[in-house]
Amino acid sequence: MKKILMSGAACALDLGDGSERGLYVNQDYILQKLHKIHRGISLMYTYYPNDKEWPVRACEIDKGTEPKGTWDSPYENYFPYRGGREGLRDGEPFCFMKEIRRHGMDVVLTITIDPHLKEEDIILLAKDLRPYGRVLLRVNHECTGAWFCYTRRATYQEIADFFVMVCRVMHKYAPNVKMILCAGMWQKATGKLEMEDIFLEAHKAADIWSCDNYLSLNWGWPNVVAKKGGTLFASYNNDDVYYRFKRTLDRLRFITGQNKPMVLSEMNADGDVNGPYAQAAKLHDFMEKLQKDEDKWLSAMTLYQFRDDGRLGLEVTDPNNCEVGIEQPLLASYREDLHKPFFSQKLQEAGDVELPAKLRWSSSEDAEGVEMDIHIEKNPHFAELYFNGPLRDSNLLMEFGGWWFYKAPGVKFIDLMSWFFEHKITLPVDMKLRIFMPPADGLNYPENGGNPFEAPDGDWMNNYYTVLPGLPEVRIEYEPLGI
User: Fold this and answer.
1) Which of 6, 114, 204, 470, CA to CA, is 20 to 30 A from 152?
2) 288-347, pLDDT tens digit by residue?
3) Environment class of residue 296 by beta-carbon count within 10 Å: exposed (0-12), middle (13-18) or buried (19+)?
C-alpha cells in the first residue's frame, strides 16, 4: 500500500449545476453519467435582503405584467441565498454545498448581491462560508454588462468599489474563500478591457480573474426562439473567441502588474443556435485548442451547465418532468475530453503508508490518499468492494481505472462492474484502487471543536483530517455462480 497525492490538472474543469435556466442535479447522478469528478461544482444564487419581495424567487413575484426579458424582475432570477441575515444554513445553497464537498469537489459559488449592502452584511456571508474549505466565490459577474438587475441599482464605479469591499471582508473573515472577478474583456477597437480604468482596483483585489463568453448563445431565451433572420442570437468564430480570452489575460497582467489564475466561468456553445451536433463539435474544438496551446495560460474552465431548460446543457430538461434529463450528443463528447490527462487531476505515489492512516483533504487539487493493487486475471463477472467495521462509517472517494466511485457513510458495498462493462480485460493485469477521504458531512471543523462559523482562523479552514481505519474487502469472481 502506498500513499497517493492528488494535485491539480494542467487545466481544471468545473461544472455548472443549476441556475436561472435549470435545477440542481445531485452529484451521484452526475458521477454515474460522467464517471469522473470535476475540480468544482458551480452554483448560482442571488441576495437582495433589503427588497420587500425577498426572499421570493424573482420569477414568482407578481409584477402585474408579462416579463419582457430574462432579467425583467426586481432582482436576478437565481435561487435566493438564504444564509446571511436569515441564517438558514441547512437550506439552499448549503445543502448542495455539503453534498459537493462530500463527493470530493470544491464549491464554486456565484452570487449576485445588492451592491448597496454594507460591510456588516458581507461579514455574515463570510462566516457562512468559513467551514467549506476552499470556496471559489464570484460576486456580481459580467459586471461591465447592462443586463443584470444590480447594474440598474448602482454606477459601475459603485459596483467596482463594492467588489473591493467584499474582497477585503472575505480575506479577513474567511481566508479560505478565493474571490473571482468576472469583468470586461479585451476590445479589438481600443486594445483595452471594457471599463478597465473603473475596475482596475477590483482586478487588483481579486484572487482570480475571469470572463464569460459563449461560443454561441441565444440570449433571447426563453422569450424568443432562435430562428433564421433573428437578431437575439449569435454564433462566433472559435479562433476569435480563443484569441480574445488570451488577450484579456495579457491586458490584465499589463494593467495590474500582477499574474493571477485565469478562469472561464461560463463556457459552452448553445444548441439553440448550432443544433446538437455542431454544439458538441464547437466545444470539443475549443478544448482541443487549450490542449495544443504551449502557453498553458488557462487555470480552469466551467462548463455551463449539466442540465439546462434550454440547450446549454449536457442534458436538456424533460419539459414533462424537471427531474428527468434528456442526454445530448455534447455529453458523450465532453465526457471524453473530461477524462483526458490535460483536464485530469494528477495522482502521484508518495512512499509507503501503514494503517490506520491519517489523511488530509484540502481541496480537489490538494489531497492525500492511499493506493492498493487489485489483481485481475480476466474479465470478471463480479468485482465488488465490501466495507466492514469502522470503515463502513467512512466517507470515501475512490478512483479505479480512471473512473471515480463514491461511498457514503453507512454504505457497505460498492460495485466496480460498470467499469468492466466498457473496458474488456484480455490479459492479466494489476489495477490500482485509490482511496481519498473528503469531509464526511461536507464541513471542516476546528481542531478543538466548537462552532466552525465563529471559530478563530486556523489550519482547519483549509485542511480536513480523518483516519482511514482499514481497506475494503475485494471480491473478484470470474464465472457466474449459476446459469
Assistant:
1) 204
2) 999 999 999 999 999 999 999 999 999 999 999 999 999 999 999 999 999 999 999 999
3) exposed
Buried b (16+ CB within 10 A) or exposed e, 2-18: bbbebebbebbbbbbbb
Contacts of 65 (CB under 8 A, 6+ apart): none
- Give the relative orientation of helices 94-102 and 27-34 as an angle to the nearest 10 degrees: 40
Beta strands in 96-221 (DSSP E): 106-113, 135-139, 177-182, 208-212, 216-218
Which of 417, 386, 442, 355 minimizes the C-alpha distance to 97? 442
Question: What 8-state DSSP symbol labels residue 77?
Answer: S
User: How many Å from the N-terminal Cα to the C-terminal Cα in the chain?
Assistant: 37
Whether pLDDT at 359 is above 90: yes
Take residue 424 and report the three cell numbers written for it: 474488456
Cell numbers given for 210: 475571469
Residue 295 buriedness (CB in 10 A; 0-12 / 13-18 / 19+): exposed
Q: Which of 323, 303, 322 is nearest to 314 (CA)?
A: 303
Q: What's the rounded Cα separation, in Å, for the pair 38 and 47?
A: 26
Instruction: Note the residue count of the chain.
Output: 483
For the chain, give the longest Cα–Cα distance.
Answer: 74
**139 strand-pairing partners:** 111
Where does 154-268 have alpha helices with state H?
A: 156-173, 200-205, 238-256
| Burial letters 205-227, b for 16+ CB under 10 A, else e | bbbbbbbbbbbbbbebbeeeebe
pLDDT single digits (tens) 184-202: 999 999 999 999 999 999 9
Sequence-distant (≥ 6) Cβ neighbours of residue 223 within 8 angstroms: 67, 68, 69, 70
CB 436 within 8 A of CB 355: no
pTM over 0.85: yes
Q: Indicate whether 67 pLDDT > 80.
A: no
